[in-house]
Amino acid sequence: MEINENIQVDRNLKAIEFEKAGEIEKAIALYEENVTEGFKGNHPYDRLATIYKNQIDLDNEIRVLEKAIIVYEEITLEDRLEGLPKLFRFKNRLEKAIETKKQLAKQKKAKLK
Asked: What is the DSSP annotation of 27-76?
């Protein structure tokens, strides 16, 4: 399957409009399409990770960040200048999300006692 980058960019722009209109689920659907296709830009990964973090949906936040890391590892290998700093940023965000998930699990476990 060939990926059309123009369609991906259009999805991002439409998703931005949906976010501004408060239609978060529609924005998520468009960003998720780009993530599934391995969009080679940070926008859908950043936005989805932020949306899922705000929704306290850590599993999806972690999944999106892991996908971003895979994409940015490829970008770095292609010698695109923005690749390495964004790769490090996504890795840092992933570590924080995993740590948050662990902390919430500990809190939940403590409440059950």
From this structure: HHHHHHHHHHTT-SSSHHHHHHHHHHHHTT-HHHHHHHHHHHHHHHHHHH
Q: Name the average pLDDT for the chain.
A: 93
Per-residue burial over 69-104, b if 16 or more Cβ lie within 10 Å, else e, is bebbeebbeeeeeebeebbeebbebbeebeeeeeee
**Residue 51 near residue 28, CB atoms below 8 Å:** yes
Q: Is the dihedral of CA 35, 37, 42, 44 positive or negative?
A: negative
CA contacts within 13 A on the Cβ side of 98:
9
9-31 pLDDT tens trace = 999 999 999 999 999 999 999 99
Query: What angle do helix axes 5-20 and 43-54 make, rounded to 10 degrees?
Result: 30
> What's at 32, amino acid-wise?
E
